[in-house]
Amino acid sequence: MTEINRNLHRLVKRLPKVRGRYSEDVSLAKITWFRVGGHAEVMFKPADIDDLEDFLAKKPGDVPVTVLGVGSNVLVRDGGIPGVVVRLGRGFADMNAEGDQIHVGAGALDVNVALTCAEVGIGGLEFLCGVPGTIGGSIVMNAGSYGSEIKDVFVSATVLDSQGRKYRVTKEDVVFGYRKTLLPAGCIVVDGLLKGCKGDKAQITEKMMAIRKVREKSQPIRARTGGSTFANPEPSQTKDLAWQLIERAGCRGLRVGGAMVSEKHCNFLVNTGMATAADIECLGEKVRERVASVTGVHLRWEIQCLGKAKVENSDRAKT
Ligand SMILES: Cc1cc2nc3c(=O)[nH]c(=O)nc-3n(C[C@H](O)[C@H](O)[C@H](O)COP(=O)(O)OP(=O)(O)OC[C@H]3O[C@@H](n4cnc5c(N)ncnc54)[C@H](O)[C@@H]3O)c2cc1C
User: Fold this and answer.
1) Which of 16-20, 68-72, 175-179 has the lowest mean pLDDT?
2) Which of 102, 106, 166, 308 makes an SS bond possible with 136, Cβ 3.0 to 4.6 Å?
3) Looking at ligand 1, which residue's alpha carbon is closest to its atom 46?
4) Dihedrals φ, ψ of 220, to 5°?
5) Quick check: CB of 145 below 6 Å from ligand 1?
6) Domain match, 21 and 105 both
């Protein structure tokens, strides 16, 4: 394609005018925890909810939209994500605490929500201090740890559907599962209302410190990782947790290219430095195969694998 043709075909030229920012060909390896993956064709950072609503209502129907938080639970494939990747920034990070509830923008970091709750004496949300994502990502993933999860504190959320229509969904409308929440396909969470209980500030802070200490000891939280790779199986399937099955299948320390099953916590895959997304996905599939063959349990990916695989030049020549 010539430079003139490429310019004419740029996706950004077909997108509506917005108050936020479009950037083209943005490296997603720079913003995801695994530090791997291709580029977003266009990244859109909306100025605020109205801007996002407007964009969704006016964008051409054939343009795919993917939303990302801080990329702590995704594996972006090496071929990148076609279409528009939406990232919720500052305009979506407000927090307002009142009584035992906190109303937060979907772009707010979980750790900041936990800290704000500790400051104002709202207990029950301490578990968020150990989840390195955003509230939007955590609502969609039903994130949790140490016996609590989003489901326990969720009151309601505002979501936009793929056409930019705004809805309020409450606990009764939403089906929460283990590390997944069933929301209508393609919807974007823009804020959430969470409810804890009034508590003692010092005790809340102490609980958060204890959670941090345990995590530091048992998880590779400073590694290039996506957190727990596989969801724990349903108790009706087996009483074993995912890491126990992986251990039993002899996968601790297993490698593919630059990807490795963590020695510290074998349900974590890590990028040892030069891994590609394909290495990590291939390693994950290898672990699933070995676990299935040794234990009969089929693990479900908890990490969301997004985008398309890279087409190598030799493959392209064949097509
Ligand atoms: C070191 C480490 C430790 C972790 N520990 C835990 C843990 O203890 N417990 C736990 O539950 N998880 C844990 N995780 C996983 C991860 O932090 C959580 O799943 C987190 O909630 C993801 O939030 P995010 O903003 O990073 O979402 P992303 O990773 O950016 O996105 C995750 C998914 O949510 C979708 N999404 C994101 N934002 C929105 C939105 N606003 N609206 C609609 N869809 C959206 C994305 O499309 C994607 O499918 C850990 C991860 C790491 C790297």
Assistant:
1) 175-179
2) 106
3) 68
4) -80, 65
5) yes
6) no
How many Å lie between the centroid of ligand 1 and the Cα of residue 304? Answer: 9
Q: What is the pLDDT of residue 319?
A: 43
Number of domains making up the chain: 3
pLDDT above 60 for 317? no
The residues that are catalytic are 179, 228, 302
pLDDT at 9 over 80: no
Residue partners of 296: CB distance under 8 A and separation at least 6: none
Assigned domain for 315 exists: no
How close is the Cα of 316 to the center of ligand 1, in Å? 33
Task: Tell me, yes or no, whether 196 and 232 share the same domain.
Answer: no
Shared domain for 195 and 98, answered yes or no, is yes
pLDDT for 187 beyond 60: yes
Percent of the chain predicted with pLDDT > 90:
87
> Hey, is 79 helix, strand or coil?
coil
Which residue's alpha carbon is nearest to atom 43 within ligand 1? 188
β-partners of residue 113 are none
Q: Ligand 1 pocket check: which of 110, 131, 135, 214 to mutate, most ligand atoms within 8 Å of Cβ?
A: 131
What span, in angstroms and rounded, lies between the C-alpha atoms of 113 and 115?
A: 5
Q: Which residues constitute the domain of residue 31?
A: 8-90
Query: What is the tens place of the pLDDT at every residue in 241-256?
Result: 999 999 999 999 999 9
Ligand 1 pocket member 133 (CB < 6 A):
yes
| Ligand 1 close to Cβ of residue 38 (< 6 A) | no
From ligand 1's centre to the CA of 72, what distance in Å?
A: 5
Alpha carbon distance, N-terminus to C-terminus of the chain: 18
> Any idea what the Cα angle at residue 28 is, between residues 23 and 30, rounded to 5°?
100
**Is 80 exceeded by the pLDDT of residue 30?**
yes
CA of 293 to the centre of ligand 1 (A): 29
